[in-house]
Amino acid sequence: MTRQPRLSSQSGIYHVMLRGVNRQQIFEDEEDYRKFTFILHDMTSPKDELQRPLPPRCALYSYCLMPNHVHLLIQEKKEKLSKTVKQIASRYAMYYNNKYEHFGHLFQDRFKSEPVDDYPYFLTLIRYIHQNPVAGKLCKNVEDYDWSSWAEYTNAPKRVPAICSVRNVLSKITLDELKEQVHTPLPKAQQVLEFDRYRGIAPTDAVIDFLKSTYNVNDPKDLKTYPKEQRDEILQAVLDFGAGINQLFSLTSISKYIISRAGARPRN
Fold it and tell me: Phi and psi for 119 in degrees, rounded to 5?
């Protein structure tokens, strides 16, 4: 099967997920987590052989290291996203393989990514990434998890160097507002980036047929012109039918934030 080309981000910002091959564990102990964070630091604050600062290869806004996968909210800078992420993955895989005498691939062949082109969705992803350990039942509270970027936002004691462009985020939202949002669990419908391909989603032809037969929507992109209440009711129904958020974004060109918010509406 031919691989689909990656969607391009106008902002240069992407949500990236690196997963262990066959979902195997990629962090065995504290040293492993530390190593990965130092690799991230080298990407955002690189230096030459004389320890002189170099232009950043990327910017990070949040990250979370889970036992068998990694979430990054990352922005292209000096080089293309694919080159940066492959460098991160290859450096860590070399370290891991040497330490554990592991042979073969550590990560799935192709990392997952999606563009982030509007602020509400950017903010949703900051919440989602930091809530990942709580949703995965690794801890009870966001601040209890050692291997995410949340401590950088709260100025809590950190085990690793600062990596993220926190000031940039906090120039658009106060820390108190961000804390309130991050500590408010996202509805399941808004946990948007386990990537639709990891869920059993309805075939696109079936989604299009559902819109035509149930709501007389012949062109999914027409939904952008519908009144808000009617649009959201239809989006909610088609999500219940089995459509994915990424899939609906491609079909309708409606922002993922609006689609996920519609899916989280209380039913009448």
Answer: -65, -45
Say what the pLDDT of residue 158 is. 74
User: Packing angle between helix 245-252 and helix 228-241, nearest 10 degrees?
Assistant: 130
Q: How confident is the model at residue 201 (pLDDT cuts 50, 70, 90)?
A: low
Hey, which residues does 69 pair with through a beta bridge?
19, 66
What does the alpha-carbon distance between residue 175 and residue 179 come to, in Å, rounded to a whole number? 6
pLDDT at 235 over 60: yes
Please write the tens of the pLDDT for every residue from 27-54.
999 999 999 999 999 999 999 888 899 9
Please say whether the beta carbons of 19 and 69 come within 8 A.
Answer: yes
How far are the Cα atoms of 66, 145, 161, 162, 182 from residue 134, in angstroms, in the given order?
A: 11, 8, 23, 22, 11
Dist. CA 11–CA 116, nearest whole Å:
7
For position 245, what pLDDT does the model report? 81
pLDDT digits (tens, 9 = 90+) for 152-181: 999 887 777 889 999 999 999 999 999 999
